[in-house]
């Protein structure tokens, strides 16, 4: 499912226009990104938790030459599914 298909499903389920569903989806994803950028977490009970994981600096290898390269420390978004979501997909 892509974004436009999700918007269509949301509009049908909530009995709202596709434009309103698109604005709601965009607002949700924007707010999650803002909270994560500030270092917070977003918990949607039953669905899951969005958070930031810190990756330490490490040494990797250039796949073309095999030479070692330094990979910088970084922050990456993470999602942990909640119990209700896990149960729904089994």
TrEMBL record:
Naming one, the record's GO cellular component terms include: cytosol
GO biological process assignments: chromosome condensation; DNA replication initiation; DNA-templated transcription
Q: Which Pfam families match?
A: Bac_DNA_binding
Keyword Transferase carried by entry: no
Matches recorded under CDD domains: HU (cd13831)
What SUPFAM superfamilies does this protein's entry cite? IHF-like DNA-binding proteins
UniProt entry keywords in alphabetical sequence = DNA condensation, DNA-binding
Annotated GO molecular function terms are: DNA binding; identical protein binding; structural constituent of chromatin
Q: What does this protein do?
A: Histone-like DNA-binding protein which is capable of wrapping DNA to stabilize it, and thus to prevent its denaturation under extreme environmental conditions.
Q: Which family does it belong to?
A: Belongs to the bacterial histone-like protein family.
Listed name of the protein: Bacterial nucleoid DNA-binding protein
Q: Which species is listed as the source?
A: Thiocystis violascens (strain ATCC 17096 / DSM 198 / 6111)
């Amino acid at each position: 499912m892509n974004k436009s298909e999700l918007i269509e499903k949301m509009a049908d389920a909530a009995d709202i226009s596709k434009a309103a569903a698109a604005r709601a989806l965009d607002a949700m994803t924007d707010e999650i990104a803002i909270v994560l950028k500030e270092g917070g977490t977003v918990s949607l009970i039953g669905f899951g938790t969005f958070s930031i994981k810190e990756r330490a600096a490490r040494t990797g290898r250039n796949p073309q030459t095999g030479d070692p390269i330094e990979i910088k420390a970084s922050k990456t978004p993470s999602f942990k599914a909640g119990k209700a979501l896990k149960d729904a997909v089994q």
